Amino acid sequence: MKRITVLGGGNGGQTLSAHLTLMGHSVKLFEHPDFAESVQALNRKGGIELYGSIEGFARLELITTNMEEAIRDTEIIYLVAPSFAQTPIMRMSIPYLETGMKIVLIPGNFGSLEILRILEEDVPGLDVTLAETDTLPYACRMDEPGKVNVWGYKKGLSMAALPGNRTRALIKEISDCFPIELRPSDNVLEVAFSNLNMIVHCSTVLLNVGRIESTRGDFRFYTDGVTPSVGKLQEEMDRERIKVGQAYGMELVRAIDWIRAIYPVAGESMHELLSGNPIYARHGADAPKTVTHRYVTEDVPYLLVPVDCLGEASGISSPVIRSVITLLSTITGKDFLSEGRNLEKLGLKELTPGEIMDMVRGHENSTEGRGAS
Q: What is the DSSP pairing of strand 56-58 with strand 48-52?
């Protein structure tokens, strides 16, 4: 039995902490003090109920808004929070972090790089292992605090440590306290590039913006929203994603092939694979109610922007991805290129593509100081 802390009390964090508890682990759940009412509701219930693909009521060791209590004596920290909340939550944890802790971002969305930069600035010499996965283990929705409908869960997730030469040892250590198979990736860039939310969510919101605003999301996002034309845009964005990855020596899996491997679906196009996915198709209207949903405010600045910026740094343009960024920036009134995870925020601005890859892989000739934590 491992001592585990889950940081983040949303639907993903509640599901993971409850599932791990049902598996027999000692789990503490932390939620930001801004959401103290949710923590109070969970404590009144005495735990978290999962139903659907996972059934059971989990009584966690602790549910709290106190960071010191949450991570005291913890071996493994799973950070399950929206990308915009990752660095604020990790900043709260800094006074209580200890050498040897394992911190896994689920999903990472390039967050391990930004957090590494912060740790190097604030606590130089602290030796923790950072890692990230490409997506959440579950497809789930929270009915209310403490009650989560788990529609399904994936066959496996990709994960890499920062630096990548720590990945296999980390997976060996945590595989018995993670709910599904963890598949090693070469480096955290490969993992973040593999989060297909950037392809699926952003394009579907953009091309359904009128429908979202006129119906307040009263349609099935994937089943109804991913029409053949939306699928074509997704496939072109995916080609650009893969091309940028190739500039950094990464051979990324096509979105079409990844979906077929993860979900019980068949098809030859994004339209066929997403609109016919039974995990999403049977749950009724599930589209965002506004355009300022996390499918935009998270996936554009924290996924599309770093892909576009890394492409630009390597001399590879991604005009369709840049157009999606620009249009959604205009619609939401945000400057996602400057607000998002650009190279400066990731601590990569002064590095060449080769130096970036050496740093994330952990090669001996990597830039001094980077990836040492």
A: antiparallel
